[in-house]
Design brief:
The complex is a heterodimer of chains A (279) and B (219). In chain A, 32% of the residues lie in helices and 22% in strands. Chain A is an alpha/beta fold. The longest helix of chain A has 18 residues, at 255-272. Chain B folds into two domains: 11-109, no CATH class; 123-218, no CATH class. Chain B contains ten helices and no strands. Chain B has helices at 11-14, 17-31, 37-52, 56-60, 69-82, 85-107, 111-121, 133-164, 173-193, 207-218. Chain B is globular. Classes of the chains: A alpha/beta (279), B mainly alpha (219). Chains A and B meet through helix 4 and helix 5 of A and helix 7, helix 8, helix 9 and helix 10 of B. Chain B: It is a multi-pass membrane protein. Chain B: Belongs to the CbiQ family. Chain B: It is found in: Membrane.
Chain lengths: 279, 219
């Protein structure tokens, strides 16, 4: 399922490499010299003919996209490939064919470093938190970046204070409300200072109030955001929405164009369904 | 039974984690050959006093023994029927004392301190090229997700009772195992998304210096 990284393999060894440099393979050279992240790039993600097959099923087919907007929404029915698409952004999946470049670097070549640049928030916060208390959970992100224990603790306390979450610092994660849990999961990712934040249905298990507060929090962030949601209201203020269907891009444009078309399609399908199990 | 960390600054909190773990190991081994219920009772009373020094919240932790009551009862009955009731009492007292003592360590120790202490136990694995961080993190995850797994089982038992009117049965073992496997996959994916067990401290690109500066600024 993992595609061959054609870009990362060079065609020949550079001239003039002798002695200690002789171990350099073209592949390694191109990784070090070309596969660098450039957060200043306008197109932070570029899909070129990307496809993905999971469990024998082709979940993404020939996806070609350039993402540059600050706020991008992804919509589509369950099984349309939304989660698979965003998992290509942070290397949880690698394309089986074609390529995906994040900030100019091909994901297949820089997979291990992607979590530095692409933060990922999952649907269920209970599956994300690794440490039992909030402060430790935030500190974990800093230790992942190389901070020692004491610096990570202080950094986590300071970070929580800046995000007005200091009262939660010592609380056990399991005792938080669902909204607080999701907020802490977002902060645990943000503390690693990614340039891009990807969220896979983060509001799915939240009540209306918690969902709106998370939405407000997301609006206030500087990071570029790619968000999957079935609740179309959360795309208010978004720059672009991509509608996926059967692993392909069905429509791509500003929310004012895409969302009404998507809703119309949902209504049409619901009206056309003749079988009760067609859900 | 595994409790979460009880924030505080009691004298037990201040004891270095390695000393706590060593004391736990020594006491546990010391009471293994003891068969005098009076001595074991005294040890148990001593452990309860330690909980009392943590205050009301500390004493509340003792109630977490509740899920173990049925198991303790079975052990007591098995000893009583197969041997003597005194043996059953000794076995139960010993087990309760050890479990409470181990729990005392977990409620008074931050997980990152525990991780560091456990990691040092795995340093010899470096000789075989195995990172000590991975098994240490595995221990952390076991402690963190024990309550989550209990909650998964409770949900299954509740669903079973709603449809059958009966309490949980052996039939729940298979769906529980499947859900546990799915949970472990989700957790592994979430850990990978945050840099994996090894972390992101090693970077080969030129961004390293810039990221370090950012991190320093952030801290």
């Amino acid at each position: 399922m993992f595609g061959v990284n054609k870009r990362a393999t060079g065609t020949g060894r550079p001239k003039g490499l002798k002695g200690d440099m002789a171990f350099w393979t073209p592949h390694r050279m191109r990784r070090d010299e070309e596969q660098r992240f450039d957060p200043a790039l306008a197109d932070f993600a570029v899909f070129e003919g990307a496809g993905l097959t999971l469990g024998g099923r082709e979940v993404l087919k020939d996806i070609s996209l350039s993402l540059s907007e600050r706020r991008i929404g992804i919509v589509g029915l369950n099984g349309s490939g939304k989660s698979s698409l965003v998992r290509l952004l942070n290397g949880l999946h690698l394309p089986g064919c074609g390529s995906v470049r994040i900030f100019g670097a091909e994901t297949a070549a820089v997979r291990a470093q992607l979590p530095r640049h692409v933060g990922f928030v999952f649907q269920n916060p209970d599956h994300q938190a690794i440490f039992p208390t909030v402060e430790e959970e935030i500190a974990f992100g800093l230790t992942q970046l190389g901070a020692d224990k004491q610096a990570a603790r202080e950094g986590a306390a300071d970070f929580l204070k800046r995000h007005h979450c200091q009262p939660l610092a010592k609380k056990p994660f399991a005792e938080l409300s669902e909204g607080q849990k999701q907020l802490i999961c977002i902060l645990a990712v943000l503390v690693m200072q990614p340039e891009l934040l990807v969220l896979d249905e983060p509001m799915a298990s939240l009540d209306g109030l918690a969902a709106r507060r998370i939405q407000q929090k997301l609006k206030s962030l500087d990071q570029k955001i790619v968000l999957i949601s079935h609740d179309l209201q959360v795309f208010d203020g978004f720059d672009r929405v991509i509608w996926l269907e059967d692993g392909r891009v069905r429509m791509d444009g500003v929310p004012g164009d895409v969302l009404p078309a998507y809703v119309t399609d949902l209504d049409r399908r619901a009206g056309a369904a003749t079988d009760e199990v067609d859900l | 039974m595994i409790s979460v960390y009880l924030p505080g600054a009691s004298w037990i909190h201040r004891i270095p984690v390695r000393l706590k773990l060593l004391t736990l190991a020594v006491i546990s081994m010391a009471i293994l050959p003891v068969h005098d219920p009076a001595v074991l009772g005294a040890v148990l009373a001593g452990v309860l006093v330690l909980y009392a020094t943590l205050g009301p919240e500390g004493l509340k932790q003792v109630t977490l023994l509740k899920p173990l009551v049925s198991l303790l009862l079975i052990i007591f009955l098995l000893h009583g029927i197969g041997g003597s009731w005194m043996e059953g009492l000794v076995a139960v007292l010993r087990l309760v004392a050890m479990v409470l003592l181990a729990n005392l360590v977990s409620v008074t120790t931050r997980m990152d301190d525990m991780l560091e202490a456990v990691m040092s136990l795995f340093y010899p694995l470096k000789v075989f090229g195995v990172s000590p961080k991975k098994p240490a993190l595995a221990v952390t995850l076991v402690i963190r997700f024990a309550p989550v797994l209990l909650s998964v089982y409770s949900s299954l038992a509740e669903a079973y009772r709603a449809r059958t009117g009966k309490r949980g049965s052996w039939r729940l073992i298979a769906p529980f195992a499947l859900q546990a496997l799915r949970l472990s996959e989700n957790v592994a994916e979430a850990l990978t998304a945050r840099g994996g067990a090894e972390g992101l401290a090693v970077e080969t690109t030129a961004n390293t210096a810039e990221r370090r500066r950012m991190l320093k600024r952030n801290l």
